[in-house]
Amino acid sequence: MSKTEKCFEIAFSPTGGTKKAADILISGMGAVTADVIDLTDRNADFSEMAFGEGDICVVAMPVFGGRLPQVAAKRLGQIKGNGALAIAVAVYGNRAYEDALLETADILKGNGFKVIAAVAALAEHSIMRRFAAGRPDEEDIKVLEGFGAKIAAKIEADAGDMTDFEIPGNRPYKELKVASLMPEVDGSKCIGCKLCARICPVGAIDEKATTETDNSLCIGCNRCIYYCPKKARSLNPEKLAALEEKVGAALSGRKESELYI
Predict the structure, then answer these.
(1) Pick the CATH number of 184-234 from 1.10.3720.10, 3.30.70.20, 3.30.750.24, 3.40.190.10
(2) CA atoms of 88 and 10, how far apart (whole Å)
(3) Strands 233-234 and 258-260
(4) Of the candidates 25, 37, 201, 36, which has an alpha carbon nearest to the alpha carbon of residue 122?
(5) In this structure, CATH architecture of domain 6-172+255-260
(6) In sequence order, what E strands does 93-242 have?
(7) Which of 53, 118, 182, 239 is the most exposed place for a label (fewest CB within 10 A)?
(8) Mean pLDDT per segment of 10 residues, for the chain of length 261 residues?
(9) Nearest to 81 by CA among 118, 99, 44, 56
(10) pTM of the model
């Protein structure tokens, strides 16, 4: 790929880690980002979006409990590939990506994309932020850029069936479990700016009552916590500590990014 070739980025990245991994991969491919399709935008009409042969799309999704968030999967499933090349990316917080990478690839294939590579990448855990803290770090950047170069070489070679490779995971996918920790609000800090309500991917926060969250809609992505300018939103520290104690062993040690091509 030439440095002037354009690559589309499709991402569901509530706190930025998933998009950062995709950005690094695209840079390693030697491409520039032509356009970013933000799957967290609940007001966008994704059914109107379509690609075609000659287009290259890096599709990055976060891993929630080994699966994709349902809302992200649904929105991705509305975008038409029409023969466009796609690189499936699943970004996880140092536990496991389980069926999420396969699920991403299956959605893309079902909508007419040609999946030519798949990447499992690391980012700081969006709930328990001390796990995989600061990732993708400098070492991750080198690895992901290297993956990008290999993907670009495959596209440049254009030899044989570029979709003939295996992606780990299981069908049927594992059961999707809803996040157990929901944001809490300190009303004394909230200034009513309504940013949290505007950026919530699922509309779980009413602009007229921003100190409240509809837990039946909330997916626990922590976007509202991450972007709150006054840190008025947070997770209950005792519940967070209990969760870290429960699952900490599974998140210990350093996992590494993986490329399937």
Answers:
(1) 3.30.70.20
(2) 10
(3) unpaired
(4) 25
(5) 3-Layer(aba) Sandwich (3.40)
(6) 114-122, 184-185, 233-234
(7) 53
(8) 77 97 96 93 97 96 96 98 97 96 98 98 92 95 98 90 94 86 93 97 94 92 96 94 87 94 96
(9) 56
(10) 0.95
